[in-house]
Amino acid sequence: MASTTVATASAKGPKLKLTGSDFGQILADGRGRALYLFTADHGKSSSCSGDCATAWPPYIVKSKPTAVVGAKPGLVGTTRRDDGKLQATYAGHPLYYYEGDHSPGEVNCQAAYEFG
User: Fold this and answer.
1) What is the separation of C-alpha 2 from the centre of its chain, rounded to a whole number of angstroms?
2) Which carries the bigger pLDDT value, residue 116 or residue 84?
3) pLDDT band, residue 115 (cuts 50/70/90)
4) Helix (H, G, I), strand (E, B) or coil at 104
């Protein structure tokens, strides 16, 4: 079992994982940067663009991320944005960074109400 985890964790490409934070376990990219969902998104489509996407940069990927370290593979996916770029999703929600987070595990905008 351990060899499967190591093989998955060392897989190339984008990753989604669970990691610890001051808020408990959070979803993060492969480098440990916090990922957020945008409550104004309905369904798999992103409604965050322009100034919203500046404050909440979408997690853009070239291929479907791999679930590692606690993330559930069946919940990982992607959606095509209006600009044609591929955005990672989890449980059907497009994923975003927060422009104020700079380090792995940093969560500076939990439960914020911005852009809808």
Assistant:
1) 25
2) 84
3) low
4) coil
